[in-house]
Each structure stands twice: as structure tokens, then as C-alpha cells.
Backbone:
């Protein structure tokens, strides 16, 4: 989807800049009116009078009515003038407050749309993500995160010009936005705008000199890509010049089939062949003239491909061969299939990934990406490749500071959708991949954080399988690594940590579906870290932290005790008041766990939730889990003196009766409502009168078995 045209309009941009200046002017004027310095205050008052006159004059001209022009009294202000000033100040403050409230509402809506866009992005629904980000920008045009997120989606969609445009708007909101410069650099690189790409990365270093390693990695990527393109252009020119100008794909294959030539001859021929293969016609000619077999049977080519320790010449031949394979397989499913059926290729792909030679790894990753990006390509990989080592091999690229890390993680993210890949990952998980993953968690400050967050997400997705989840959940090193990552991400000073923390919380939520002694040992530490994260500025992280709390607390009574001491009840009530479906689900479950075993939690909830306003609202939710837990939480708190009395005159009896009588979506909510209704009448008998009026005694009697069993 295209972004709204209004966001690209020059007049709109001018209006936007004028709006920001007016906000600054009004803020300065308010400060002057509040000043204790009488001279400053009088000057501000005069300026305010002048602005009101100008506005009145402007409106008068539009409506063709006469406007009285007020003459500013330059004498010292008397009591009446002071009263007018006070009234005017009150009007300005009220107006500022209303604007702030409108702004807050728009921010909340924009943030909600941004989160929906993020969810769509994570699902791979790029068009949906762009739509949500665009809707968010209609609400709030100066939120840089919406621009950079949409730019990232455009980048994935290969809409590079639109990505650059969004980055420029993000920089208008915040000229020091590192993410905007980074994404703009990527977009320029894709468009082969190499100087512009370098300039973007140089801006990152100017904004934050600590990003030197990122700067070097990005510039290296630009230099390598520029060199590769120039080499291809040179090879193409060579192919079009001199004696090779008339050579066809078929003729070049015949030459490459000639035995006894030196390695440089074959390297040059393969380069020329790669330059000639430009479309499906040449790809078909290559295949039908036995191109794969000719190269596979060539001793020099096969020897270079399979050599454990490659010479520079052998490495150069391998790089040329990988570039050729990309050319003949791009968008051609049959060629992709034939290539993977070549024994040498099938055996050597993982070895090439592990070669340690940057250019070979880079081109191998590019070749594998051709397969992983399509469903048919992924099926070919899992059918013709032994992928048991791939999780470990690809995850090792998290240590790289260049584009290899991102490409490797993209391949992993694509492969994780294949059930056969997940099954093969399980084979060597505990001995190979998991130790490496734990090492990456422990050394987060020394690895590529963007790639690490993706790797954590991949492991989290793998943990959807019970067998893999059990292995990971029993790893102490994994829990310790996650806790260390959460602790280091608390200050939020390093942008990359935010995504790592978010991913780590998701992994922990999956692991907490298990129950073992190690989880019990770590429950107190996990709940403590999550409590600290409840003040994080990223709402996604806060929501997931509450989710982890709701699953970690049942594992340990000590964790519940520490959480209650840490003020978890008041914090949950605060978040539940703010709303949000996921927050409600996790928050009410957390309160249920705490109030089930802690008298202090019960008393704090009664005190924090006046007349149980929050719980009553949750009883009207459409989600059975929320309703059932709200009813259970209420019943657990009715033993607190005065709790039942505080509900007199409320709708609690009607709500509980309706749920207990069968309106609840499931039996658990129905039973919990019946228990709560019974305990309510025991705690405050006056509720029985309301129950009789609603003809509810029969329903209560039939549900008393639940009360007795509770």
C-alpha cells in the first residue's frame, strides 16, 4: 500500500513545521504568564493580547463582521487587569490541557496501530503492516517509530524509494534517529546509490560515536557490494568485447568442459557465463546443455569446491561458481531442483557456510536465500539437504558484524516454517546448537544485536514443539543468559537491546509452559526482572513481562511473596485500568495467583481497586479466561473485612448471577462466578435481598456444590 499522499505534500510539510513552531510559541507564552517576574509577566500578557487581536481580526475579515480593536493599557495593571490576566491564563491552561488530552488519545491509538503493524510484520504480512502504520500516521504525524517501522516494511517489499521517503520524515521528527539513517542506508545500497548509502552510515557515527563497529560493518558491506557490481559490469563488458563477444552460453559451456586448463581459465569462463545468463532463456539453455554436469565433472572446479583449505585462486573460483549458480537459479524452480541433486553441491553447502572465507560465505548465503524465500524452494532444501547442522551453522553468524548476520537469520526465520527442519533441529540441539545459543546470550554486548534478537525468536518458535521446549527449559545456562539479557536491557541505553529483551521474554513465556525444578529455582529471579521491566517505555515489553509473570509465579510460593512485596498488585490494577486485551489476560491471571495464597495481596487489591471497579469491568469481558479469572480473584478477596459491604449498590450480583446461570462461555467461568456469588452472600448477607429480587436463589442453590468444593 502506498503511504497517504498528504504525507508527501510540500504544503502539508510547511503546515506541519508551522504547527510545531506554534506549539513552541504557546509554550513560551505560558511560561511567561506564569513567571514571578512582573516585567516578564506583563510583556507576556501584552503579547497574548496582541495575538488574540490578530486572531480576532483574521476571523472578522473572513466573516465580514466588525471587530472591536482593544487598545493595550500600558499603565500598571490594577486588580481588574490582574483578574483578567488570571482568567486568560486559566483559559490558556485549559486549552493546553485539552490539547494534551487529545494528543494523548491520538498517541494511544497510534501506538495500538503500530503494535498491530508490528504483529503483521512478524507474520510476514507486509502489506497489512504498511496499512496499520499508515493508519497510525493519520492519527499522529510526528511519531518517528511509525515512519521507521513502515520504512522497514517497504525495505522488505523492495519499495526502496518509499522507504527512503519515510526515513526522511522520521528524521524531520528526530534528526538523531539512528534507525532512520540505518534503513535509509540499506535502501540506497539496494538502489546502488553507494555514496548516499555511505553518507547515511557516516551520520550514524556522527550521532553516536559508540556505533563505530556498526559503521565499519555497514561501510564494508557497501564497499563489497559496489566492488561486486563493478566486477559484474566489467565481466559483462569483457563478454561483449574482443574474441568472446560472439560466444553464447552453449559455446562457453563447451570451453569449460575442456580438461587440463589452469584454474584461472575456468574462473574467467565461469564469470563470463554468469554475466551472459540474464533471463529464463539463458537459464534453460544452461540446463539443457548439461551445464550443471559439465561443471560438476570438471576436476579443477570440483577440487576447488571440495578443498578443505582453499588457496586464494580456489576461493575465487568458488565465489565465481556461487555467483553463476545464483544467476541460473534465480526464479527458476527446475534449475533449483537440478542444482540440489548434484552430489558435490548437496555435500558442500554446509561446508561453504562454515568455510571462514567472507566472500564464499556471503555468496553461499545469497544462494540459499533464493531457496528459503519461496515455499517451493524451502521444500527443495528440506528434501535434498541434511539440515541437522544448519541451525548451529547459521546461528554462528550472529557473531558477524556485517550483512552475513542478517542474511543468515532471514534464512533461519524462513526455514522455521518447515516441520521437517524443526524435526532435524532437535537431533543436535542439546549438544551443538543450544550451547552456542547460550553462549550468544551470555555475550550479547559483543554480537550483532539485531541478529541475536532474530535468533532468540527462532529458538522461541522451535520451543512450540514440546520435545525441543523440554530440552531448552532444562538448560540453566539458557535461563541465566535470558536473565542477564533482561538485566542489561533495563536501562534502554542500547537500542538493539530492546528487541532482544522483547524476544527473550517471548522465549521465556514458551519455556514456562514446562514445569521442572530448574524453573522453580529461577522463578524468583525471573519475576524480579519482570517487575523491573513494568516501568519500561516500550509497551510491548511491558505486556510480555506481565505475561511471563503470570506463568512464572505459579512455579514458586517464594516468587509470589517477593512479587507482592514488590508492589505487583498495585501495578497490575494500574495496567488493567488502562485496558488492552493481552494485558487484561495476563494481568488478571497474575492477580489470581497472588490473591490465592497471599492475604497481603488480597488486602492490597481491595484497597487499590475501589469498590472492585476493575474486576467488575473484567466480568463483562467477552473472553472466558478473563471472566473466569476475574470471578475467581473476586471470590478470593471477599474474605477481607468490608470487601463484601463495599459492593452494596453495585451490579455485582446481577453480573455473577448471569455468569453462574449459564451466560458464561465455559464451565470454568460459570463455576468461578457461582463460587464468588456464594462467598459474596456469606461476606455480606444483605446481597441476598438483591439475589431474591432477581430470582437467583434457585441458581445459587444448584451451584452450592461448587462453593462447598472450593
Residues:
Amino acid at each position: 500500500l502506498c503511504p497517504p499522499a498528504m504525507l508527501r505534500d510540500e504544503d502539508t510539510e510547511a503546515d506541519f513545521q508551522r504547527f510545531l513552531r506554534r506549539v513552541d510559541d504557546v509554550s513560551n507564552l505560558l511560561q511567561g504568564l506564569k513567571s514571578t517576574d512582573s516585567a516578564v509577566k506583563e510583556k507576556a500578557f501584552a503579547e497574548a493580547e496582541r495575538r488574540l487581536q490578530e486572531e480576532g481580526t483574521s476571523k472578522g475579515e473572513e466573516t465580514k463582521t466588525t471587530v472591536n480593536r482593544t487598545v493595550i493599557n500600558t499603565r500598571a495593571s490594577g486588580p481588574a487587569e490582574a483578574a483578567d490576566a488570571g482568567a486568560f491564563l486559566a483559559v490558556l491552561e485549559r486549552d493546553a490541557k485539552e490539547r494534551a488530552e487529545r494528543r494523548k488519545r491520538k498517541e494511544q491509538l497510534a501506538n495500538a496501530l503500530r503494535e498491530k503493524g508490528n504483529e503483521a510484520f512478524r507474520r510476514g504480512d507486509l502489506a497489512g503492516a504498511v496499512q496499520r502504520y499508515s493508519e497510525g500516521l493519520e492519527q499522529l504525524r510526528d511519531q518517528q517509530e511509525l515512519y521507521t517501522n513502515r520504512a522497514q516494511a517497504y525495505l522488505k517489499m523492495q519499495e526502496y524509494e518509499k522507504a527512503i521517503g519515510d526515513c526522511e520524515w522520521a528524521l524531520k521528527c528526530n534528526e538523531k534517529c539512528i534507525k532512520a539513517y540505518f534503513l535509509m542506508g540499506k535502501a540506497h545500497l539496494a538502489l546502488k546509490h553507494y555514496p548516499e548509502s555511505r553518507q547515511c552510515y557516516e551520520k550514524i557515527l556522527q550521532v553516536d560515536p559508540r556505533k563505530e563497529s556498526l559503521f565499519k560493518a555497514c561501510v564494508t558491506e557497501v564497499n563489497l557490494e559496489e566492488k561486486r557490481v563493478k566486477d559484474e559490469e566489467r565481466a559483462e563488458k569483457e563478454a561483449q568485447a574482443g574474441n568472446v563477444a560472439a560466444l553464447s552460453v552453449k559455446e562457453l559451456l563447451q570451453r569449460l568442459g575442456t580438461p587440463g586448463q589452469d584454474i584461472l581459465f575456468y574462473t574467467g569462463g565461469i564469470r563470463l557465463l554468469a554475466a551472459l545468463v540474464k533471463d529464463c532463456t539463458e537459464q534453460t539453455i544452461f540446463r539443457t546443455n548439461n551445464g550443471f554436469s559439465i561443471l560438476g565433472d570438471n576436476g579443477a572446479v570440483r577440487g576447488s569446491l571440495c578443498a578443505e583449505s582453499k588457496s586464494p585462486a580456489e576461493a575465487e573460483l568458488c565465489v565465481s561458481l556461487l555467483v553463476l549458480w545464483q544467476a541460473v537459479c534465480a526464479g527458476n524452480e527446475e534449475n533449483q531442483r537440478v542444482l540440489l541433486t548434484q552430489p558435490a553441491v548437496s555435500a558442500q553447502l554446509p561446508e561453504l557456510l562454515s568455510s571462514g572465507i567472507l566472500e564464499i560465505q556471503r555468496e553461499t548465503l545469497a544462494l540459499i536465500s533464493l531457496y528459503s524465500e519461496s515455499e517451493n524452494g524451502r521444500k527443495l532444501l528440506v528434501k535434498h539437504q541434511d539440515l541437522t547442522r544448519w541451525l548451529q551453522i547459521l546461528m554462528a553468524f550472529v557473531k558477524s558484524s556485517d550483512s552475513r548476520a542478517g542474511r543468515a537469520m532471514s534464512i533461519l526465520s524462513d526455514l522455521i516454517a518447515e516441520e521437517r527442519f524443526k524435526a532435524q533441529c532437535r537431533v543436535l540441539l542439546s549438544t551443538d546448537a543450544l550451547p552456542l545459543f547460550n553462549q550468544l546470550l551470555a555475550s550479547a554486548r559483543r554480537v550483532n544485536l539485531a541478529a541475536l534478537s532474530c535468533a532468540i525468536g527462532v529458538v522461541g518458535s522451535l520451543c512450540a514443539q514440546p520435545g525441543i521446549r523440554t530440552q531448552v527449559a532444562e538448560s540453566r545456562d539458557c535461563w541465566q543468559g535470558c536473565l542477564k539479557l533482561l538485566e542489561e536491557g533495563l536501562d534502554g541505553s542500547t537500542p538493539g537491546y530492546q528487541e532482544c529483551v522483547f524476544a527473550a521474554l517471548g522465549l521465556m513465556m514458551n519455556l514456562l509452559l514446562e514445569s521442572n525444578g530448574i524453573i522453580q529455582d529461577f522463578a524468583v529471579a525471573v519475576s524480579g526482572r519482570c517487575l523491573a521491566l513494568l516501568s519500561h517505555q516500550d509497551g510491548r515489553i511491558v505486556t510480555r513481562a506481565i505475561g511471563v509473570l503470570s506463568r512464572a509465579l505459579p512455579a514458586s510460593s517464594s516468587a509470589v511473596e517477593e512479587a507482592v512485596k514488590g508492589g505487583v498488585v498495585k501495578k497490575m490494577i494500574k495496567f488493567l485500568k488502562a485496558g488492552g486485551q493481552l494485558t487484561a489476560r495476563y494481568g488478571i491471571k497474575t492477580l489470581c495467583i497472588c490473591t490465592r495464597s497471599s492475604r497481603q495481596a488480597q488486602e492490597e487489591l481491595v484497597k487499590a481497586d475501589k469498590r472492585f471497579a476493575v474486576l467488575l469491568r473484567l466480568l463483562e469481558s467477552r473472553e472466558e479466561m478473563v471472566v473466569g479469572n476475574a470471578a475467581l480473584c473476586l471470590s478470593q478477596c471477599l474474605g477481607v473485612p468490608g470487601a463484601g459491604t463495599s459492593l452494596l449498590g453495585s451490579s455485582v450480583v446481577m453480573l455473577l448471577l448471569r455468569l453462574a446461570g449459564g451466560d458464561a462461555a465455559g464451565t470454568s467461568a460459570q463455576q468461578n462466578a457461582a463460587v464468588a456469588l456464594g462467598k459474596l452472600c456469606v461476606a455480606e448477607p444483605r446481597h441476598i435481598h438483591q439475589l431474591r429480587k432477581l430470582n437467583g436463589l434457585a441458581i445459587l442453590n444448584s451451584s452450592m456444590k461448587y462453593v462447598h468444593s472450593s
